[in-house]
């Protein structure tokens, strides 16, 4: 197992462990930090292992960090919707 996959697995374990504990801000600050750390790890996984393994990591990360993805989807739909009237 190469370094990028080890880092990706550590990221997944940390994200899952932190999600188990309650937080006053509903884990948003933690989510922003994990996204900021996860994107370079995703690029590193892509560079070392190729697009398919990176896609698997991306889907797993989106599963763990689903609320930021849901809110991003809502924001994009809101801004791409045609104005009524």
UniProtKB/TrEMBL annotation:
- Which residue ranges does UniProt annotate as crossing the membrane? 29-47, 52-73
Specify the protein name: DUF2484 family protein
Q: Does this UniProt record's set of keywords contain Transmembrane helix? A: yes
**UniProt lineage:** Bacteria, Pseudomonadati, Pseudomonadota, Alphaproteobacteria, Rhodobacterales
Keywords linked to the UniProt accession: Membrane, Transmembrane, Transmembrane helix
Source taxon at top rank:
Bacteria
């Amino acid at each position: 197992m190469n370094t990028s996959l080890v880092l990706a697995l550590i990221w997944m374990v940390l994200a899952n462990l932190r999600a188990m504990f309650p937080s006053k801000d509903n884990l948003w600050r933690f989510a922003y930090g994990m996204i900021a750390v996860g994107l370079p790890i995703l690029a590193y996984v892509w560079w070392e292992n190729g697009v398919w393994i990176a896609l698997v990591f991306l889907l797993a990360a989106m599963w763990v960090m689903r609320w930021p993805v849901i809110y991003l989807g809502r924001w994009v739909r809101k801004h791409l919707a045609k104005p009524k009237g």
